[in-house]
Amino acid sequence: MHIVVFAKIIEQEQALVVQELIEKCAHSPVKLTFFRTMYEASAQWMTIPDHIRCLDNEEFGDGVGVDFLFSLGGDGTLLEASMIIGASGIPIVGINLGRLGFLASIEKKYIAQTIDKLVNGEYSLEKRSLLHFKSNESQFAPFPYALNDMTLIKRDHSSMVVIHAAVNGEFLNSYWADGVILSTPTGSTGYNLSCGGPILMPTAENFIITPIAPHNLSVRPLVVPDNSTIEFTIEGRGENFLCTMDSRHEVISQKTKITVKRAPFDINLVKLPKITFMKTMRDKLQWGRDARNYKK
Predict the structure, then answer these.
(1) How does DSSP assign the chain, residue by residue?
(2) Nearest to 85, CA basis, from 18, 143, 17, 139
(3) Of 45, 82, 108, 136, which residue has the fewest beta carbons closer than 10 angstroms?
């Protein structure tokens, strides 16, 4: 079994997790490879064994011969890992070193057990859909995809913008707002949730259009089938605006015409037994926990 490990930052206390991963794999039929950012972030706190290869993102290619990619960090780290994986289909194992961790749902204390379950085949794969961005100006090349969401927002503290949206060629609405979010089910627990949008089950075949601070209070988030073609244009007093795809952003203008569809490939996330989406919701959002029921 070949595992490649990706991380952006490793703090000193987190080096213990890396050490545990190395030691566990040394006693398992597992070959470890670190991406360069992971290697350098860990090397400042510990000595990396000579047999662990250091890999640049560009060298990963289509990932032939790799069985799993471990993402050590938070949800943002996993989003970057999805860009590395691309359409290769290599499963991502999200180990949470951050705080909330909706995507990176496996807690760091279970890293040794995770290796055992992967070796023994005690896991399942959950397919997550992505957005596919196209425009008349070719932004976000060479990876015009997003696992979480796409947003159109005003660039500064100027007045609100007007975003015109159409679904399958039919005019939907002109959103007078600070912006609009187009979210996947995966992204429904992110910016979409903060702006009052609904949570979708990860495998739901839908997208969500959610306005950001709309001028008309009657405007509400809308769930659309993910086989829809969604088109956007934007106008406002400013000359330029921002478009984001997950953690990346590009400047757009009133001449930009955007079309978004479901991507032709999915991202595979590894799910371990008993770590379900509904359990994650209960734990992370503290559903059913009321401080009035507990004595201080």
Answers:
(1) -EEEEE-S---GGGHHHHHHHHHHHHTTT-EEEEEHHHHHHHHTTSPPPTTSEEE-HHHHTT-TT--EEEEEESHHHHHHHHHHHGGG---EEEEE-SSS-SSS-EEGGGHHHHHHHHHTT--EEEEE--EEEEETT-TTTT--EESSEEEEEESSSS--EEEEEEETTEEEEEEEESEEEEE-TGGGGTHHHHTTPPP--TT-SEEEEEEES-SSTT---EEEETT--EEEEEE-SSSEEEEEETTEEEEEETT--EEEEE-SS-EEEEE-TT--HHHHHHHHHTTT--GGGS--
(2) 143
(3) 136
Q: Sketch the domain layout of the chain as residue ranges.
A: 2-128+266-293, 131-262
Residue range 27-57, pLDDT digits in tens: 999 999 999 999 999 999 999 999 999 988 8
Tell whether omega for the bond before 225 is within 30 degrees of 0, i.e. cis.
no
Query: Residue-wise over 114-123: b if at least 16 C-beta within 10 A, else e?
Result: bbebbeeeeb
Tokens of 228: 């829809």
Which CATH fold would you assign to the domain 131-262? Answer: Tumour Suppressor Smad4 (2.60.200)
Q: How many CA atoms lie within 13 A of 141 on its CB side?
A: 6
What's the rounded mean pLDDT across residues 131-144? 94
- The label of the residue with tokens 């359990």 reads 279
Classified by CATH at the fold level, domain 2-128+266-293 comes out as Rossmann fold (3.40.50)
Measured between alpha carbons, how far apart are the two ends of the chain, in Å?
49
For 30-43, b where at least 16 C-beta lie within 10 A, e where not — what string?
bbbbbbebbbebbe
Among all residues, which ones are annotated catalytic? 75
Q: Give, in order, the Cα–Cα distances in Å from 89 to each of 14, 41, 137, 243, 266.
A: 28, 26, 28, 27, 7
* Residues facing residue 58 across a β-bridge: none
